Amino acid sequence: MRYLVRLSGNRADADDLFQETFLRAFRAFRRLRARSNHRAWLYRIATNVFLNHRRAAGRRRETSLGRDFEAWFGSTAQSDAVASLTLRRVVEALSRRQRSAFLQRNLQGRSYTDIGASLGCSATTARAHVYQAAKRVRRALTPRGGQS
Fold it and tell me: Dihedral of CA 87/92/97/103: which sign?
């Protein structure tokens, strides 16, 4: 559910997407191999449901991360809120795959294998998406004269 809230940026949409995800999973469960990664399979269904929803809505804008994004990073002070807003904008500017991989790795602690399965790519490609996203985030958050 949290994953869908982050992708959609809207709790009401996430509720609908969550329900659709589990309906699709229920219908397809018989076709799932016993040794398959069930968690990655569910994340892949959730990702596809979200993408279908976004296409159907005809949105061109990238997905919002949601209001509770700051809570994940533990920001409480006003300066932290400004930093979190900047971080949110940077992460929102990432490509869909990089953003999804970055969030799954850093907010949910998922393995590269699971991330790759949910994105429909290899673990190596998932690692590359996370690396490129982190590189862009670091570059955007580093002061112009500073080094990281």
Answer: positive
